[in-house]
Structure formats: structure tokens, C-alpha cells
């Protein structure tokens, strides 16, 4: 029902914001403690504090934490790629690599969906099932505008 969906959204929003608040508190506290103990701030402090906060706050495998970790992972990969170019570990691309990345991401996810579906996150499986399988059967335009699985038959 609409009420249940709204309640679920509110609970997820609360859990997300609560986890971020806990993480910030732990991270900033550990940064300050390490700097105080060593008399100065060291780059490794950030990594250690974040690892500790990540373990304590986001270590439980649940839908909220999973979404946050997947979001961060994609940003990390982009950031590490840029850092590798900046530091000269890999050459500056002559042309924008994004079209190739887009092709490889879509090729990989659809291959996984078709042949190793169980390896994908359940919400992604559900979305892809709706887009690539449920859409094979339709009755009229309302199937694509509303929802294409009908319980009543015309």
C-alpha cells in the first residue's frame, strides 16, 4: 500500500542518515584522537579512522549499507583512475574513455543478468527483469506507463 511504501521510505531515509551521522562521529573522533596521540595529523590517520568507522557502522550487509557501499565504490574507481593518470601511472587518454567504459559496464551487467543473474543485487535483478523480460508481454500502452504485469485478464 502507499502507506507502507511511505513508511519504508521514511525508515530507509532515517537509517541512511543515522548511519552517516554515526560514521562521521567515529571518523572525526578517531582523527582527533590519533592527531592528539601522535602530536600531528598523518595521512594514514584518515584511512585508519575511515576503515574503523566503515567496519563498525557499515559492516552489516543490509540493503541500506549495500547501496551506500556500491555508490562509494563507483566513485572510488573513477577517483583512482584519475589519480593514476595524474601521478603518471597510466598515460592520459587521447580521447574520452567514457564511451568505452559505458559499453563495458552495460555489456557486463547484461551478460551477468542473462547468464549469472544470482550474482547481481536483488533490486537490480528486479529492475532488469521488469525492463528486459516483463516487457516481452504487453497489452496496450498502459503496460509501459503503469506496470506491465496484470492480475486481471482482458
Automatic annotation (TrEMBL):
Keywords: Membrane, Transmembrane, Transmembrane helix. It comes from the Eukaryota. InterPro entries: Pmp4. This is PXMP4 protein. It comes from Dicaeum eximium. Coiled coil: none annotated. The keyword Lipid metabolism does not apply. The gene is Pxmp4. The chain crosses the membrane at residues 20-37. One of its GO terms (cellular component) is peroxisomal membrane.
